[in-house]
């Protein structure tokens, strides 16, 4: 058996990758781990770690930490930063004047990864604005715009498990990178694999290194003040708020931002308020997962008499919202419901601010295509514009950037995965501003004798009920996912999509993987096509839209369904029943969970 393993170890590709790793890696821990696997002839582990590479894409990097090119570690960070630096030097001639912004969260190794990233840029005489302590993800794109930098890097894996980390890249417009920059950076990484002489050496006293924290905090708070419209109401509100940063970076930044809105201190969740990279009190550090992630916040609210919970994910770019109902139960609002409420509030605030020089027809709201179309209904009646983009906040942010440059006013953007962009001073989802704005909205509603849930019902009554039913299945087998979607594309023969789903009838199909949309005259979709991910949308005669798609960062096959009712025509109960019937058929006929051995989201 040992001889067989040694023979496998003679694979030229593996030998080369192994030699490169042992030559290049200067981290004693990860280098020793690869050396141990070599000494033990653990060929399978060596192949797994060295022969595949963590792919760089429009989301940057995200993966588990550990030794090898397939994981997040010092060497991979240096190689990625070298490729990014070379690409920026080629693409933006002024980068040695403008520089880059670098931030990091509180995960294991985040600070070190940020310093190594800084070392790479400094080695090329590129100025670096490196935050001196952990910061929310939105503080990086904010600083890119404020400081007029050429790019930004945030070291974070957002709400992923504690074993993961990531590397998120922003372009000079303050939005996440899109094509062709992703492919250009990926190619440059492969051309700059050997570490440069100074890449391993971070110098805190480097003359081109600056800390933007103090200035950006002040500038961010000034922007927050422009979003506050009811300071006196906020200062006097009897509403008590509980806040949790989910063991992440948000606590200090939220508490510091309260003064911009004249809000009283929030009640903190004591066991979750301090940064902890092990996220000890939650199975998943993701407030989107529902009540299980908010158990301690609910307990703190019950103890303190608070009726509203505000929660950020660990890097504070997402916001969760919950309210205690009159029945005594807690309502956790979905991303679509929060998007509806905040979208309405941003429109209300715009109207109240009486900006006579800005017409409603020059105002825009944006949502991803799998998010609720409630804002489209609101826009139709109120006279502003609504647009949808591909899934992923990079599309929302880059579209907002285009609109801004055309002289338009972008009031709001959101995606159903509890990501919200209030205004356009940060071109990414921002859980800090969204949290404080949601608190002001709640305080104002209190003066009208309304709860958050009651206001949501009022919006549904005025603009029509928009009921959603979204969830996902876990699937770790790429071939199973591929087969599922190919079956839908060849459902009744080659290139034939389903015509029914249970008792429901398919009206239109849009396939953004294959580039097909039969609602368009030329059968070509308006939204961009991407063969790298699976995404099919079915529009049914019965007034329901259902989208099936894969996740770009998690082993999930997601479904998003929505039924849009007409104001005053149908009850919530009627619409919910119709939608639930469709979802049952969708799961049974399109997902086939037993046949495909995939399991649903755990409650």
Automatic annotation (TrEMBL):
PANTHER family: PHOSPHOGLUCOMUTASE 2B-RELATED, PHOSPHOMANNOMUTASE 45A. Residues 54-192, 219-323, 356-463 form the Alpha-D-phosphohexomutase alpha/beta/alpha domain. GO terms for cellular component: cytoplasm; nucleus. One of its GO terms (biological process) is purine ribonucleoside salvage. Belongs to the phosphohexose mutase family. GO terms for molecular function: magnesium ion binding; phosphopentomutase activity. Pfam families: PGM_PMM_I (PF02878), PGM_PMM_II (PF02879), PGM_PMM_III (PF02880). Keywords: Carbohydrate metabolism, Cytoplasm, Glucose metabolism, Isomerase, Magnesium, Metal-binding, Phosphoprotein. CDD domains: PGM2 (cd05799). It is found in: Cytoplasm. This is Phosphoglucomutase-2. It comes from Hypsibius exemplaris (Freshwater tardigrade). Its cofactor is Mg(2+). Its main location: cytoplasm.
């Amino acid at each position: 058996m040992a001889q067989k393993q040694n023979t496998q170890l003679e694979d030229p590709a593996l030998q080369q990758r192994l030699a490169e790793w042992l030559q290049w890696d200067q981290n004693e821990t990860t280098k020793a781990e690869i050396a141990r696997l070599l000494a033990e002839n653990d060929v399978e582990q060596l192949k797994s770690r060295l022969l595949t590479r963590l792919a760089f894409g429009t989301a940057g990097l995200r993966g588990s930490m550990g030794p090898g090119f397939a994981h997040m570690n010092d060497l991979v960070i240096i190689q990625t930063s070298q490729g990014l630096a070379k690409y920026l030097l080629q693409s933006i001639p002024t980068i040695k004047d403008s520089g880059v912004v670098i931030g990091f969260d509180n995960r294991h190794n985040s600070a070190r990864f940020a310093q190594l990233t800084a070392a790479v840029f400094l080695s090329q005489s590129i100025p670096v604005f490196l935050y001196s302590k952990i910061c929310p993800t939105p503080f990086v794109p904010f600083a890119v715009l404020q400081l007029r930098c050429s790019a930004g890097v945030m070291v974070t894996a957002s709400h992923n498990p504690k074993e993961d980390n990531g590397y998120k890249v922003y372009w000079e417009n303050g939005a996440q990178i899109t094509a062709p920059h992703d492919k250009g950076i990926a190619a440059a990484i492969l051309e700059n694999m050997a570490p440069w002489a100074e890449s391993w050496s971070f110098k805190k006293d480097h003359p081109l290194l600056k800390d933007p924290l103090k200035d950006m905090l002040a500038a961010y708070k000034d922007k927050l003040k422009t979003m506050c419209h009811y300071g006196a109401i906020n200062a006097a509100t009897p509403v008590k708020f509980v806040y949790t940063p989910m063991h992440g970076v948000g606590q200090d930044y939220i508490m510091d931002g309260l003064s911009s809105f004249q809000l009283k201190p929030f009640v903190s969740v004591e066991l979750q308020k301090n940064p902890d990279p092990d996220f000890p009190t939650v199975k998943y550090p993701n407030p989107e997962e529902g009540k299980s992630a908010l158990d301690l916040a609910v307990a703190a609210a019950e103890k303190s008499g608070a009726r509203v919970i505000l929660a950020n994910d660990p890097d504070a770019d997402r916001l969760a919202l919950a309210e205690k109902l009159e029945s005594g139960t807690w309502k956790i609002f979905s991303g679509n419901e929060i998007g509806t409420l905040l979208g309405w509030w941003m429109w209300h605030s715009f109207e109240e601010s009486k900006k006579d020089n800005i017409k409603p027809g020059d105002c825009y709201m944006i949502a991803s295509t799998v998010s609720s179309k409630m804002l489209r209904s609101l826009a139709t009646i109120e006279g502003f514009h609504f647009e949808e983009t591909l899934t992923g906040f990079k599309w929302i942010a880059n579209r907002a950037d285009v609109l801004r440059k055309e002289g338009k006013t972008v009031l709001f953007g959101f995606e159903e995965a509890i990501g919200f962009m209030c205004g356009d001073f940060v071109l990414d989802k921002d859980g800090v501003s969204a949290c404080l704005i949601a608190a002001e909205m709640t305080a104002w509603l209190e003066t009208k004798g309304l709860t958050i849930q009651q206001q949501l019902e009022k919006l549904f009554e005025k603009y029509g009920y928009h009921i959603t039913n979204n969830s996902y299945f876990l699937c770790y087998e790429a071939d199973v996912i591929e087969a599922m979607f190919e079956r839908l594309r060849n459902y009744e023969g080659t290139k034939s999509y389903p015509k029914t789903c249970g008792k429901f009838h398919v009206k239109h199909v849009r396939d953004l993987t294959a580039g097909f949309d039969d609602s368009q005259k030329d059968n070509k979709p308006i939204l961009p096509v991407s063969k790298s991910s699976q995404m099919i949308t079915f529009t049914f005669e019965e007034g329901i839209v259902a989208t099936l798609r894969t996740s770009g960062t998690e082993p999930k096959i997601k479904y998003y369904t929505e039924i849009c009712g007409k104001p005053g025509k149908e009850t919530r109960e009627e619409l919910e029943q119709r939608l639930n019937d469709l979802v049952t058929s969708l799961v049974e006929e399109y997902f086939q969970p037993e046949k495909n051995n995939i399991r649903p989201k755990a409650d």
